Amino acid sequence: MAKKVLVSGGAGYIGSHVTVELIEAGYDVVVADNLSNCDMTGFEGVKKITGREEIPFYQIDCCDYASVDMLFTEHKIDAVIHFAAFKAVGESVAEPLMYYRNNLVSFLNILEVAKNHGGCNVLFSSSATVYGEAEVLPVTEQTPRLPSTSPYGNTKQMCEDILRDVVFATSSSDAVINGIALRYFNPIGAHPSALIGELPRGVPNNLVPFITQTAIGKRECLSIFGNDYPTEDGTCLRDYIDVVDLAKAHVAAVSRMVEGRMKKGYEIFNVGTGRPVSVYELVSAFEKVNNLRLNYRFVDRRPGDVMAIWADTKLANEELGWKAERTVEETLASAWAWEKYLAGSGNN
Ligand code: UFG
Q: From the centroid of its chain, how far is CA 199?
């Protein structure tokens, strides 16, 4: 019988891509989402891509213990992938209580319910933000985490620690929790079908949605934050990981858990490409592959940005048997195809 995976936050950008890849790999999936930061576009897209009309969807808030408990009562869950969280760095600085409550309580509920239902495999969606401004690049999973500069980043660190502690405490009980934290670098792009992709509400915080919205005429001009960094072209370096590649890393991690191939009860993997790309290079690649010119200007640095970060991906490559495959050009073409699809569908 197929293993069943609960995807919390499964209607969102990364969650929808992961749901597709799980289904295509033969898993049964249950999606839970409170739709606080997305609508049903992503979930409808998942159904179209997979041709599955019957994927169970629950509009619930994981901060409500009884709702999470109901999911585990109705379904025999073999693994949970927990995405349901707020993710805007700036907003988290302005609204720390909202961030701590939402991101911590939802994860605590998932873990507590999983434990009370006899244990489970739990995959937590973490972030390269935990490394801060690392001194040595690329960062490995052993690179020390640095104190976070935002409540958002703090919640990622705290949830990693909570998972580690719960794994330890349950390891010799009859309700074992196994845990994997995936530390994402910068997820970008969209599914090749252009039926799902990133759908930011309001003005995008992240680079690629801002680029595609500028290219389509929704925004006047892209501001490139800083061209005076001590990098080759003066702009920041990041590790941009294709969202479908990222989704496949989740399938590899879930398989490792449900097939009993973990080497420790709690494991951490970087999920990136290992390839640093500057903001300027990314903008130029977008222009080239899509054959257009983008309106942009250089402005002051954005407070809180690190100059450079990219992943050492050896551990994920070797242990998960996974590797990022799509080129930056393919990914940027997919982001543009998605923006054009949105414009045509009246969704934008
Ligand atoms: N940038 C611009 N103009 C924009 C937006 C971004 O020049 O309009 C630049 C930023 O200064 C940065 C790069 O593009 O150099 C990438 O910025 P993003 O906002 O897309 O991504 P970040 O690297 O800042 O943040 C991402 C995730 C966060 C996570 C962080 C660290 O969005 O959730 O990586 O891991 F915390």
A: 14
